[in-house]
Specification:
Keywords: Membrane, Transmembrane, Transmembrane helix. This protein is α+β, with helices and mostly antiparallel strands. The chain has five helices and eleven strands; from the N terminus they run ββαβαβααβββββββα. The chain folds into two domains: about 5-135, no CATH class; about 150-250, Immunoglobulins (Immunoglobulin-like, Sandwich), CATH 2.60.40.
């Protein structure tokens, strides 16, 4: 297939549009870290449209009443890319995500934030696709890994807390999520958090796919549990997103202290036995 070339500037339109998308993504990353709001302009001669990131900054009084440090940003995107353009945007976003794993974002050997944990390339691409999807940039090939809810993961936080994370799919007619837990020998699940409660209203469904939910279950007694996440729909239906078993072990410090105490008692007993044996009269 012949490349799509715009005669106005003598450049391939694919390259110009993709470069513009990469620049826009970079501007969004800059703004999210407190930089100046990025204001983009339409690509000359391009047929695609992007309602760009607009700055609605006003005077000091307007900013005070805006409701937050990032409330002056309004992101509205409606962008259709060719496979080549999407590949360039994805590559740029992957590199932006890669920087999070390195000290000060400097990607070089020996500069990992967690030296013993190498970067997961598959996880990088998945997160990059999620960010692009969130910003309205869809994969033209339809390779969207965040259409369905899933990827439930459980992890200990300290000695007594459990992190419950999952990725949301397309919003559709969903309303919100509910997190439940069941002890190993229990007959039924116990509700831990719901989108209906004010303190966990962040479990309401977002208007985009790929949002990562993270609920933290505090002060969990050691033991074996099953966690599950439910999703409620406007029709009233409730479906199980996923469920997984999890074992929260006794705090390591307590086990270590008991082991050390037992060791001390054993050594003391052996020493005393040896001492009294030496002091006993010989025949």
């Amino acid at each position: 297939m012949a490349p799509n070339v715009s005669s106005r500037h003598g450049q391939p339109r694919v390259m110009r549009t993709a470069a513009w998308v990469v620049t826009a993504i970079s501007g969004l990353h800059l703004a999210s870290f407190g930089g100046s709001p990025f204001v983009s302009s339409p690509v000359a001669g391009g047929s695609r449209s992007l309602r760009s990131v607009r700055s609605a900054e006003g005077d000091a009084k307007q900013e005070e009443g805006a409701g937050g440090p990032m409330s002056f940003m309004t992101v509205e995107q409606d962008l259709e890319l060719s496979p080549e353009e999407y590949a360039m945007a994805l590559e740029s976003e992957i590199e932006a995500q890669r920087g999070k794993y390195y000290i000060n974002g400097v990607v070089k050997p020996g500069n990992l934030v967690v030296p013993w944990k190498p970067v997961d390339e598959k996880a990088l691409e998945k997160e990059a696709r999620r960010v692009l999807n969130k910003n309205g940039i869809k994969d033209p090939a339809g390779d969207d890994s965040v259409r369905e809810d899933g990827d439930l993961s459980l992890a200990p936080v300290g000695d007594q807390d459990v992190s419950v994370r999952w990725v949301a799919g397309e919003p559709g007619t969903k309303i919100g999520y509910v997190v439940e837990r069941k002890a190993k020998n229990a007959m039924s699940f116990q509700e831990l958090a719901s989108y209906e409660a004010m303190e966990t209203s962040y479990l309401l469904v977002k208007d985009y796919a790929g949002h990562v939910y993270d609920y933290q279950d505090f002060l969990v007694p050691p033991g074996s549990y099953t966690y599950r996440v439910l999703c409620r729909y406007r029709s009233g239906d409730v479906q199980v997103v996923d469920q997984k078993d999890f074992v929260l072990r006794e705090p390591g410090g307590a086990d270590g202290l008991l082991s050390f105490g037992f060791f001390v008692v054993l050594i003391t007993a052996l020493s005393l036995g040896s001492y009294f044996a030496d002091q006993s009269p010989t025949a």
